[in-house]
Amino acid sequence: MTETLLFTIPLLLFALLAVSFVLVLRRAARVVAQTRELDGFRLSAGDLATRIAASLSGAAERIDAVRRGQVAADTILETLEAARDGMARYRAETDALVAPTGYEHLRDRLGEELDRAARAFDMVDHGCATLTAASVGRARGAEGQTAIKRGYLNILHAREAIVEIATNLRSPRPSQNAPRWFSGRSTE
């Protein structure tokens, strides 16, 4: 009896130790998988946000030239069409991003800012169409200039918000909270 007891106690301890080891390994594997998922999202979304910001900067420069009267309004119509097409493609990329649990709002914020930029391009297009119309009076000219300026400012604000999102995504531990200066826009 004592012989079997001396033999079973170490076996039970070994089994308990083996079960504990397996549980620790499973938890560690889960943590590694979550970290890998977050890093993949950070890299993908950060790269996307950088490309979006560069596209918006390029288009904003062309719009600013029209706003300042340096070039004619009808010369940027192709730029506006390409920018709108780019925003639609970027939106599709944003929707395809797989965000880890708790970070979906960053993907959603990126999409909201893309929608904002797309609306701004529509506003600039309206302003350019108003300025290039055959019979532009003073009132219609002012309306066109106002539409271009408002669209331009909205593009700049969307770009700044996207840069802020990209900066957050590039940090070693992205914040799950939205930046303070534009956090209340979609919560109301």
Briefly say what this structure is.
The protein is mainly α. The chain has a single domain (2-175), classed as Up-down Bundle (A middle domain of Talin 1), CATH 1.20.1420. Helix content is 79%, strand content 0%.
Topology, please?
Layout lengths: L1 H66 L9 H20 L7 H29 L5 H33 L18
Helix pairs in contact: 1-2, 1-3, 1-4, 2-3, 3-4
Low-confidence stretches: none
- Count of DSSP H/I helices: 4
Q: Proportion of β residues?
A: under 5%
Cα-based radius of gyration, to the nearest Å = 27 Å
Tell me the number of structural domains: 1
Task: Determine the oligomeric state from the structure.
Answer: single chain
Shape category: rod-shaped
| Percent helix | over 70%
Number of strands: 0
Question: What is the CATH topology descriptor?
Answer: A middle domain of Talin 1
Task: Give the integer mean of the pLDDT values.
Answer: 86
Corresponding CATH architecture: Up-down Bundle
Provide the CATH top-level class.
Mainly Alpha
Distance N terminus to C terminus?
A: 74 Å
Structural class: mainly alpha
For the report, how would you describe the main beta sheet? none
Order of helices and strands: HHHH
What structural keywords apply?
188 residues, A middle domain of Talin 1
What does the model show?
The protein is mainly alpha-helical and 188 residues long. The protein has one domain: A middle domain of Talin 1 (Up-down Bundle). The chain has four helices and no strands. Helix 2 (77-96) packs antiparallel against helix 3. The N and C termini lie far apart (74 Å). The model has no long low-confidence stretch (mean pLDDT 86).
